[in-house]
């Protein structure tokens, strides 16, 4: 089953777009693919951080 993707408008400064284009080219991705990669990675890291924070809270409350 194919995942449906939602399109949206992104306002971005020309300088940031140029940097994204360079970065994407270095990693053999489209700019869109690079943005998706960056967002996915950031969300994954955030989830890990939230879980770690929750675990630390649970430990502190148990003591």
C-alpha geometry: elongated
Number of strands: 0
* Mean residue pLDDT: 90
Helix content: over 70%
Describe the biggest sheet?
A: none
Structural class: mainly alpha
Q: Rg from C-alpha positions?
A: 18 Å
Number of helices: 2
H-E order:
HH
Quick synopsis:
The chain is mostly helical and 63 residues long.
Write the layout of secondary structure elements.
Layout: H1 14-26, H2 31-62
Protein name: CopG-like ribbon-helix-helix domain-containing protein
Pfam family, one: RHH_5
Domain CopG-like ribbon-helix-helix: 17-47
Describe the structure.
The chain is mainly α and 63 residues long. It has one domain. It contains two helices and no strands. 0% of the residues are buried.
Keywords:
63 residues; 0% strand; RHH_5; Ribbon_hlx_hlx; Arc_rbn_hlx_hlx
């Amino acid at each position: 089953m194919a995942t449906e993707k939602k399109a949206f408008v992104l306002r971005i400064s020309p300088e940031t777009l140029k940097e994204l284009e360079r970065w994407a080219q270095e990693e053999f991705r489209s700019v869109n693919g690079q943005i998706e990669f960056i967002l996915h990675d950031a969300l994954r890291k955030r989830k890990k951080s939230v879980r770690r924070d929750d675990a630390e809270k649970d430990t502190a409350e148990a003591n």
